[in-house]
From TrEMBL:
<feature type="signal peptide">
    <location>
        <begin position="1"/>
        <end position="20"/>
    </location>
</feature>
<dbReference type="GO" id="GO:0008113">
    <property type="term" value="F:peptide-methionine (S)-S-oxide reductase activity"/>
</dbReference>
<keyword id="KW-0732">Signal</keyword>
<dbReference type="InterPro" id="IPR036509">
    <property type="entry name" value="Met_Sox_Rdtase_MsrA_sf"/>
</dbReference>
<keyword id="KW-0560">Oxidoreductase</keyword>
<protein>
    <recommendedName>
        <fullName>Peptide methionine sulfoxide reductase MsrA</fullName>
        <ecNumber>1.8.4.11</ecNumber>
    </recommendedName>
</protein>
<feature type="domain" description="Peptide methionine sulphoxide reductase MsrA">
    <location>
        <begin position="38"/>
        <end position="188"/>
    </location>
</feature>
<comment type="similarity">
    <text>Belongs to the MsrA Met sulfoxide reductase family.</text>
</comment>
<dbReference type="Pfam" id="PF01625">
    <property type="entry name" value="PMSR"/>
</dbReference>
<dbReference type="InterPro" id="IPR002569">
    <property type="entry name" value="Met_Sox_Rdtase_MsrA_dom"/>
</dbReference>
<comment type="function">
    <text>Has an important function as a repair enzyme for proteins that have been inactivated by oxidation. Catalyzes the reversible oxidation-reduction of methionine sulfoxide in proteins to methionine.</text>
</comment>
<feature type="active site">
    <location>
        <position position="44"/>
    </location>
</feature>
């Protein structure tokens, strides 16, 4: 078991949340008629993109960068932690099917919002917990969701998620998009991303698309 643990730890250090992939940025889609948009960051975007895309009413989720001050950043630039961007996911959803408040609850369920600038083996401000609001109502929904988590005493420490006004979102490289589903053999996905997705499924079962609610 110790040898296995050492192997997994080494693999995670080598692979990380991204490693030596071809360049090329994804195209940021425009919201369709009737669609609303929400933006959240909770560690490596591979897991967060998958988790939020499994919710009923979510039409698509795009991995990218937000919260910083560098225009059109690359993964390599964000990883230097000089851009102040965090890995984030932009969600396009039908507000008639799922509310922003429910998305906020799912976001908080899909990672540990009490660890400052860290999610599991990923350390740094680019992995910080951060949620963006586009209106006073969204800000209030985020604050209410955080208050609920703190009151539940589910974690020994309080939520440290940043709640900030939305400014701009930059889509990440194409290879990051849908990475969770196309790279299941990546040790990082199995050891770090999958537990986050399963955690969200368990907490948000009634809001999942049918294919993801099976067996929970």
């Amino acid at each position: 078991m110790k040898k296995l643990a050492l192997y997994v730890a080494s693999a995670l250090l080598i692979v990380g949340c991204a490693n030596g992939q071809p360049k090329g940025m994804a195209v940021l889609p425009k919201p369709a008629a009737g669609e609303a948009v929400a933006t959240f960051g909770g560690g490596c975007f591979w897991a967060m993109q998958e988790a939020l895309s499994e919710l009923k009413g979510v039409n698509k989720a795009i991995s990218g960068y937000a919260g910083g001050n560098t225009a059109n950043p690359t993964y390599e630039e964000v990883s230097t932690r000089t851009t102040n961007h965090a890995e984030t996911v932009q969600v396009y959803y039908d507000p008639k099917v799922i509310t922003y408040a429910t998305l906020a609850e799912a976001f908080l369920s899909a990672h540990d919002p009490t660890t400052l600038n860290r999610q599991g083996p990923d350390v740094g401000t680019d992995y910080r917990s951060i949620a963006f609001y586009r209106s006073d109502a969204e800000k209030a929904a985020l604050e209410a969701a955080i208050k609920k988590v703190n009151a539940s005493k589910h974690y020994p420490n309080p939520v440290v998620t940043q709640v900030v006004p939305f400014k701009v979102f930059y889509p990440a490289e194409k290879y990051h998009q849908g990475y969770y589903r196309t790279n299941g053999d990546n040790p990082y996905i199995g050891a770090v991303s999958t537990p986050k997705v399963l955690k969200m499924r368990k907490a948000m079962k009634e809001y999942l698309k049918p294919e993801f609610a099976k067996g929970i």
